[in-house]
Amino acid sequence: MVRKAKKIFNDPRNVVPEMLDGLVAAYNGRVKKLDGVNAMARVDIPAGKVALLIGGGSGHEPAYHGFVGDNMADGAALGNVFAAPTPDIILEATRAIHRGKGVLYLYGNYAGDILNFDMAAEEGIEVRTLLVRDDVACGPVENRRGIAGAMLAVKIAGGAAATLDTLDDVVRVTSRALENIRSISVALYAGSIPETGEFTFELADDEIEIGMGVHGEAGVWREKMVSTDTLVDRMMEFILRDMPLQRGEEVCVLINGAGSTTAMELLIANRRVLQVLAENGVTVHECVVGSLFTTQEMAGFSISLMRVDDELKRYYDMPIRSFGWTKW
Amino acid sequence: MLLYLCEQMIGHTDTLTQADKAIGDGDHGIGMARGFEAVRLKLEGGSFAALDELFKAAGMALITSVGGASGIIFGTWFRGGTKNLAGAATLDSPALSAWLVDGLAAVKERGKTKPGDKTMVDALEPAAAAAEQAAAAPLDEALAAATEAARLGMEATKDMVASMGRAKTLGERSLGHPDPGAVSTYLILRSLWEYTEKSGE
How big is the A-B interface in CB pairs under 8 Å? Predict the structure, then answer.
């Protein structure tokens, strides 16, 4: 018998609209759902503001839609579970948040998302697109998937879009952030697809896979279970080989849980990441530990680093208020 | 004919889910079922005087309901394939040929894919070529040829290493599994062929 996930749902076909209703309610009046489409927008976007739209498949909560908020994204387009939003959803969201200064589309580098966002971008509003490609497990940068490091990019883009006057400037700052973000993941157990209850991949009980994508896309290698410190050291090697850090440089750290990995495990990983950075003479500007970008009940975690300088720190340090991440 | 196609595609949900699970995330079956359910609603809710209107409506329904890459790609096939169908009242062999040839061109442009990338193009391209060759033959023969060509194309994707979509990072591990989009392409053509055989058109 195929093992199925044990979950509380109503009709599994309605998970996205029902989740969105609950999410909008959890914002306590600061965002609204758009009529007729699975999209949401802030209620108080100032006139003349450069707008930031994020989005992607649902099922990764709180990403992406939980990162709409003050000094974060202005709106989000929601796809079905693990599937890109359709062009009509993206277009409605674009129109709802546009305030005359153009819209930045910021989302992960997946074929489906690109096809759908690009089609929406052909409809006349000034749009610029930046792709998150932080996963160092995928070879050359054009092949890299967008994983948890996307949340650091949204943080910077949100701050920049709240502060800067032109879409060009927001694109420039966000591009700088993206160039300095690297992530690597490890998977322990698969997450499941709500509509079917089936798990997205098979991994033996005593195996882990380094570099596995958030939808169970294949990673770099599988191996037997290892201790946190050994695992973190290998993962950090991957990142530091790709983005060598000089002594004295500064980074923001995100230790992201894939869904069912405990805070205890994440904190132990965080401890080791900070030790490795200290050994390399790298200063930690801030570390964030939590499950910001999940894949249902998938177990595992990712390490994301963003190298920061004064400019990026200015936007990173801005207070934010959103469902997925609030910072004073 | 398209209603029969919808029923068949919804019926194949599990087949496609399993195909996608092997090298993707396993949601292709659900997506296609959702898409062809939307096509069915669109078809039942309106009347279509011409073939191109029908295919355009079906394509839009796919684009706005499936999500992911599949919706755009399959919707673009249905929509883009109508370029030279103006005036055609029913699907005959020349219309089938035009629909597949123009649909293929539209898909390649939108998806930036080429043959050998292990995508639905590897099934659609040989199908279009077969339909073009059989454009003078009766419709059931043309569909039989296109379906068989799509099947062979789909089978051939087992020997290809994915270079597009989420499967691309599997590299060599994608060998041995057909591309789920190519499986869908074959199933769509097979359903149309089956319908033609059954109705004796």
Answer: 101
Domain A181-327, classified CATH 3.50.50.60, yes or no: no
* CATH number belonging to the domain at A13-179, selected among 3.40.50.10440, 3.30.70.100, 3.10.129.10, 3.90.79.10: 3.40.50.10440
Give the type of residue at B100.
Answer: L
Residue B128, domain extent: 2-199
Catalytic residue among A65, A98, A215, A285: A215
Question: B40 CB contacts (<8 Å, ≥6 apart)?
Answer: B3, B6, B7, B10
- What whole-number distance in Å separates Cα of residue A236 and Cα of residue A242? 10
Residues of B in contact with A217 (CB under 8 A): 24-25, 166-167, 169-170
pLDDT digits (tens, 9 = 90+) for A295-324: 999 999 999 999 999 999 999 999 999 999
**Euclidean distance between CA atoms A38 and A24, whole angstroms:** 11
Chain-chain contact of A112 with B31 (C-beta, under 8 angstroms): no
Domains of chain A, residue spans: 13-179, 181-327
Active site residue A215: yes
Question: CA A94 to CA A104: how far, in whole Å?
Answer: 9
pTM reported for the whole predicted model: 0.90
Taking CA atoms, what residue in B is nearest to A80? B67
ipTM above 0.85, yes or no: no
